[in-house]
Amino acid sequence: MTGRCFRIRVPASSANLGPGLDCLGLALALYHDLTVVEEPGTGLAVEVAGRGARQLPADSRNAVYQAMAQVLAGAGCRPGRLHLRCASSIPLAAGLGSSAAAYVAGAAAGMVLCGRDPDPRELVERGTRAEGHPDNVVPCVCGGFTVAAAAAGGVDFIRLEVPAELRAVVAVPGFRLPTRIAREALPAAVPLAAAAFNVGRASMLVAAVTAGAWDLLRAAMQDALHQPYRSALVPGLEQVCTAAVDAGALGAALSGAGPAIVALARAGAGGEPQLNAIGAAMVAAWRALRIESEYHVLGIDRQGLRVAQR
Q1: What is the pLDDT of residues 60-95, one digit of tens each?
Q2: DSSP per residue over 250-265, as a string?
Q3: I want to staple 259 with a disulfide (CB 3.0 to 4.6 A). Which of 18, 177, 179, 265 is the partner?
């Protein structure tokens, strides 16, 4: 066996965007980069860099390797000695799809090690089974703005183009909120009025984003299904969203299960200074509650999964 090296890049994602619980997602230009070196012999070396360098396991327990091993075992593939370098810029347990990115990167690498191109549909279905919902997995694989729904025997999904001027300003507080805890806060049933409210808002959100009907986004990003129940877990949720809109954002909502908050904005409306002003206003709103945070001004990732042979 001769040595080989390849790189996998997958983006962060913001799910739900307010009303689209477990179905809407947006890929963000913040990345998990996985470098895989295969050499003759046996064994495993895992290096973790970037976010999670001190928290995530650097051995066979690593989530990236676990996803890879699952694919390898299913295909009966036995690679040589592996050196994995996991370098992620995606904050952990923040509602930005870090676990989905780790899974997709690992599973895609497993497919490459088996001698085949990563299959987007297979990655979506595997990732959805691992995550329990497709809203982060689909944009991570496909890029862009995505709509997904569980279907008999799999997942139906579609990728939509968004106007080039769309940007996301993401504020991340200095505390974590594991998805499991955020999901436990949700009720088993909701009032019909709340369900109808969200159907209308989610439909309007898809139409507004794809058509560039920016004046509709503030109302379209409202939610009655999950944010009211998670607000106690994310102090300042309402204040930070209001601060973002007051500073010029088109709309704002909890990113996925949180605690990060995502505001959508236009690159052409005031340029970078305006985008940074939105982020600064979000950080200030949290600071007023004695919560430190950071913000990122991010483009929309339009490619999703990338594989580069070296």
Answers
A1: 999 999 999 999 999 999 999 999 999 999 999 999
A2: SEEEE-TTSS-EEEEE
A3: 177
